[in-house]
């Protein structure tokens, strides 16, 4: 529904706005259109990965990345419930 889409958009926008550097934002063309494209790609890739049976592999990679090498990414690969509620 429309309300869920708006909440998701808001959460992703504010999360990335908080963690990306100004240089990252400039390189990515960060803004509303960027977020819309990003969300479309997430859904597309999620569906492709599920069809290919790769979901478990991706989950394991994300868990490993979050645990050991989080500083290598421009933003955390997961969000806490507390932070999510603050964004909403």
Core attributes:
88 residues, mainly alpha, 5 helices, globular
Q: Summarize the helix and strand pattern as letters.
A: HHHHH
The computed structural class is mainly alpha
Please tally the β strands and state the result.
0
Q: Quickly count the helices.
A: 5
Could you tell me the strand content as a percent range? under 5%
Q: What does the average pLDDT come to? A: 80
Please tell me what the overall shape is.
Answer: globular
Main pleated-sheet profile: none
Q: Share of helix among residues?
A: over 70%
Poorly predicted residue ranges:
none
Q: What is the radius of gyration computed over CA atoms, rounded to a whole number of angstroms?
A: 14 Å
End-to-end C-alpha gap: 16 Å
Short overview:
The protein has 88 residues and is mainly α.
Itemize the secondary structure elements and their pairings.
Layout: H1 2-19, H2 22-28, H3 32-51, H4 55-68, H5 81-87
Explain what this protein looks like in three dimensions.
- With 88 residues, the protein is an all-alpha fold.
- The chain is 75% helix and 0% strand.
- It is built from five helices and no strands.
């Amino acid at each position: 529904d429309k309300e869920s889409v708006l909440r998701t958009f808001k959460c992703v926008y504010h999360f990335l706005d908080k963690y990306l550097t100004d240089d990252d934002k400039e390189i990515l063309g960060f803004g509303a259109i960027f977020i819309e494209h990003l969300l479309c790609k997430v859904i597309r890739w999620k569906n492709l990965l599920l069809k290919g049976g790769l979901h478990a592999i991706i989950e394991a990679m994300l868990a490993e990345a979050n645990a050991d090498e989080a500083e290598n990414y421009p933003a955390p690969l997961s969000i806490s419930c507390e932070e999510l509620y603050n964004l909403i």
